[in-house]
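Saturday, quiet lab. Running sequence design on the structure tokens for the scaffold JK sent over.
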């Protein structure tokens, strides 16, 4: 694996330029109206390494809606809070369905396939609301601590927009409640979930905040344990098999890194033992993954030989 990062800034710029010159397809998410207002031309990339380097290009310091990338942090908090009991209520299998699908959930009696599809993340949100007295605050301060940045904020417009257009997520939550797999009141669970999805962060902040997953659960800068090595392994395994939704197989096949996308256009990829890549470009493919963001991760991983399957 390449440890010399001296020519990385130039590589990142070159990757962005190549994407700017391409005519790529993709559509900004509009089922959450506030996200449809984001300029589709934003493009950023950041790489944070476990030995403390942070490099970026383009809009790498512009905050965007982290959306489903928040599911990674929620999962870590829930694992820390209730341990292996979590796995009685949610599985760890790829779903083979769109991220907000409802069909499978009834067949499988209210047990979500994994914690990074919407049903699974709502289940995790329930674990957090019922095990923290102020789960939203706990979540925000977890993010601020991980990125060591107290300016990280909740975008209230995105939150309101999600709440007003959240019927499908409400349906998923009520269906799980009907199978006794949700403990808290549904409005509380939804409010927590929409809050964590509406957090705004930049590529740089996200890359830094996930370094513990590239370092066996230990924050490489503060040397604080964020989760156990076993749980870091488990989260990376889930991200490898399900983090890019129904494109996870293709992503593993062509890139080979644990990764998570969000409909705000962000993609994070963990390179165990090395660092974290985060990219941002709002237009999405039909799986809900950023077209250019995925290309950028793929391009960099290939150039640096980062696949975990080598
Ligand atoms: N908040 C979004 C939703 O619930 C998150 C989805 C995503 O980023 N894939 O639909």
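Result came back. Writing it out in full:
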């Amino acid at each position: 694996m390449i440890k010399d990062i001296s020519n990385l800034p130039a590589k990142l710029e070159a990757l962005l330029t190549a994407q700017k010159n391409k005519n790529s397809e993709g559509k900004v998410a509009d089922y959450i109206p506030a996200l449809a207002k984001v300029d589709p031309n934003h493009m950023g990339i950041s790489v944070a390494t476990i030995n403390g380097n942070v490099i970026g290009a383009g809009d790498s310091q512009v905050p965007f809606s982290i959306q489903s990338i928040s599911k990674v942090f929620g999962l870590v908090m829930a694992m820390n809070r209730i341990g292996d009991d979590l796995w009685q209520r949610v599985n760890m299998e790829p779903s083979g369905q769109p991220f907000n699908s409802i069909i499978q959930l009834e067949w499988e009696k209210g047990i979500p396939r994994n914690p990074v599809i919407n049903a699974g993340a709502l289940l995790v949100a329930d674990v957090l609301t019922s095990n923290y007295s102020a789960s939203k605050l706990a979540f925000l301060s977890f993010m601020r601590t991980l990125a060591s940045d107290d300016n990280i904020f909740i975008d209230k417009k995105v939150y309101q927009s999600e709440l007003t257009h959240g019927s499908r997520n409400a349906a998923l939550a009520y269906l799980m409640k009907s199978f006794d797999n949700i403990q808290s009141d549904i409005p509380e669970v939804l409010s927590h979930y929409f809050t964590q999805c509406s957090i705004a962060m930049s590529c740089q902040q996200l890359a830094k905040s996930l370094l513990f997953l590239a370092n066996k659960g230990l924050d490489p800068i503060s040397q604080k344990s964020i989760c156990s090595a076993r749980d870091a392994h488990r989260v990376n395994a889930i991200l490898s098999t399900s983090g890019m939704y129904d494109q996870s197989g293709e992503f593993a096949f062509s890139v080979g890194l644990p990764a998570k996308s969000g409909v705000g256009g962000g993609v994070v990829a963990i390179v165990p033992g090395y660092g974290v890549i985060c990219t941002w470009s709002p237009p999405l493919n039909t799986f809900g993954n950023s077209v250019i963001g995925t290309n950028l991760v793929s391009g960099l991983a290939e150039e640096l030989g980062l696949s975990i399957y080598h």
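Notes for JK: The radius of gyration is 18 Å. The longest strand covers residues 44-49. Ask whether to fix the surface positions before the next round.
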